[in-house]
Design a protein that fits this description.
The protein has 5 helices and 2 strands. It is mainly alpha-helical. The protein has one domain. A two-stranded antiparallel sheet has the order 1-2. The longest helix is centred in the middle third of the chain and has 34 residues. The chain is elongated.
Length: 163
């Protein structure tokens, strides 16, 4: 799953570089009611902003499991952390978190990719307008996934009975 997560991140970098090449000089960077643009920026600023967002999303998700060994326990927020941060359980906790974070990151980058495609399509249309219906479906699907993923996180990190 780690390779899929990294590939999803790189795919977002590629689509944003592609958008930089094909978008007009000034692009809509935010859309309001009805999908109409309500904020604009230079395409270079848009590309830089998206690259920064992608990197700032990727790094914490990628390195979260490594933090278990490097950050004092009092600064970690983890379900059932007393159990998982015992020396005997840290390896398994890291293994579980790698899978969960990679999965969430892959889906999150899929969501961001969908938004990038919608923004690219909107900025290349005349008049500039976001497909609000598709955005809402994409957003709702991501929110449902996030709730399900969070429940799965808590369930997977539940300590074994008697522990």
């Amino acid at each position: 799953m780690r390779y899929v997560f990294i590939a999803a991140f790189l795919l977002n970098v590629v689509i944003n570089l592609y958008a930089l090449m094909v978008m007009p000089d000034t692009v809509a960077i935010h859309f309001g009611r009805g999908g109409w643009p309500d904020n604009w920026a230079a395409k270079e600023m848009h590309a830089l902003l998206m690259l920064v967002v992608d990197v700032l999303v990727f790094l914490p998700l990628y390195f979260t499991p490594a933090l278990i060994d490097r950050v004092p326990s009092r600064f970690l927020s983890l379900p059932y952390k007393r159990y998982w941060l015992q020396e005997a359980n840290r390896g398994r906790a890291k293994q579980l978190l790698v899978g969960l974070m990679d999965e969430f990151g892959t889906v999150l980058f899929g969501f961001l990719f969908g938004i990038a495609v919608l923004a690219l399509e909107a900025n290349r249309s005349e008049p500039v307008r976001l497909n609000e219906g598709f955005f809402m479906v994409l957003f709702a699907a991501f929110m449902v996934y996030t709730v399900v993923w969070t429940i799965r996180l808590v369930v997977k990190l539940r300590p074994p009975r008697g522990a």
